[in-house]
């Protein structure tokens, strides 16, 4: 509660004047999204305001609430996992949390909730960050926390955003094929190497091609716009190649 009180000091007080048609619609949409009649409209407007390039550095945007929401969400998920999996070790809990709060998953949740449609500005000519949906989701959670309290925010998150059934589906989800390949190579004591280089395409766009080497054999390659994405995609293809080979070997052992 001390953190909530600290941040609340910087929030604008609720205004009593009549709301504009735009604000009334925004309040209605947010209330339907979170499942209750919101109290502090201004904090939600801040959660869905983009950072501007103007000289007015005091103009509020979603970033502070994103920072707060990230911590609140992390606490909610950590506590939920701790009680849901009483017999699992720290490593399992850490992996599960990573699957839930990783940027890709949060972006998907934000997209599913259509959070970008709630932005308080015309974005038709704005290039948005690829992580904007996940950032807005965290800002929304920060706003809910400040608008009510932690326990209510926890209920909203687990009842409407990250339900237990959604979390359970992530238990067997693979979030990093590079990580899987590393585990496989360590277990088999077989070295795996990545070789990534830049390529200039015909349209003069630079891309990254990554090769995965097993001993002296290239077992997969992939092209992506970034080095990180190229390595992950190449690792995914390599993982499927190795899985297929191991299945064939297992089948041959069974037949013989």
UniProtKB/TrEMBL annotation:
GO terms for biological process: mRNA processing; regulation of gene expression; rRNA processing; tRNA processing. It is an enzyme of class 3 (hydrolase). It is found in: Cytoplasm. Its cofactor is Mg(2+). Its EC number is 3.1.26.3. Transmembrane segments: none annotated. Residues 27-149 form the RNase III domain. It comes from the Bacteria. CDD domains: RIBOc. It holds the Pfam family dsrm. Residues 176-244 form the DRBM domain. GO terms for molecular function: double-stranded RNA binding; metal ion binding; ribonuclease III activity; rRNA binding. One of its GO terms (cellular component) is cytoplasm. Keywords: Cytoplasm, Endonuclease, Hydrolase, Magnesium, Metal-binding, mRNA processing, Nuclease, RNA-binding, rRNA processing, rRNA-binding, tRNA processing. The active site is at residues 70, 138. It catalyses: Endonucleolytic cleavage to 5'-phosphomonoester. InterPro entries: dsRBD_dom (IPR014720), RNase_III (IPR011907), RNase_III_dom (IPR000999), RNase_III_sf (IPR036389). Gene3D superfamilies: 3.30.160.20, Ribonuclease III domain. NCBIfam families: RNaseIII. HAMAP family: RNase_III. Homodimer. Digests double-stranded RNA. Involved in the processing of primary rRNA transcript to yield the immediate precursors to the large and small rRNAs (23S and 16S). Processes some mRNAs, and tRNAs when they are encoded in the rRNA operon. Processes pre-crRNA and tracrRNA of type II CRISPR loci if present in the organism. Belongs to the ribonuclease III family. This is Ribonuclease 3.
């Amino acid at each position: 509660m001390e953190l909530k009180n600290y941040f609340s000091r910087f929030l604008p007080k609720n205004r009593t004047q009549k709301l504009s048609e735009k604000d009334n619609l925004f309040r209605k949409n947010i209330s339907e999204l979170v499942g209750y009649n919101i109290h502090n409209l201004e904090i939600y407007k801040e959660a869905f305001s983009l950072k501007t390039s103007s000289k007015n550095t005091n103009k509020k945007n979603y970033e502070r609430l994103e920072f707060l929401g990230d911590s609140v969400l992390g606490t909610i998920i950590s506590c939920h996992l701790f009680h849901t999996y009483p017999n699992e070790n720290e490593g399992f809990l850490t992996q599960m949390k990573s699957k839930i709060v990783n940027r890709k998953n949060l972006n998907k949740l934000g997209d599913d909730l259509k959070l970008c449609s709630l932005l308080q500005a015309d974005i038709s000519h704005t290039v948005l960050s690829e992580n904007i949906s996940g950032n807005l989701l965290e800002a929304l959670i920060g706003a809910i926390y400040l608008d009510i309290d932690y326990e209510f925010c926890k209920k909203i998150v687990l009842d409407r955003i990250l339900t237990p059934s959604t979390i359970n589906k992530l238990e067997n989800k693979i979030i990093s094929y590079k990580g899987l390949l590393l585990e496989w190579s360590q277990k088999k004591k077989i070295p795996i190497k990545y070789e990534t280089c830049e390529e200039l395409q015909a349209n003069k766009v630079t891309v990254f091609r990554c090769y995965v080497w097993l001993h002296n054999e290239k077992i997969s390659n992939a092209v992506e716009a970034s080095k990180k994405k190229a390595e992950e995609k190449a690792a995914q293809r390599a993982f499927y190649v190795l899985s297929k080979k191991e299945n064939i070997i297992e089948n041959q052992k069974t037949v013989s």
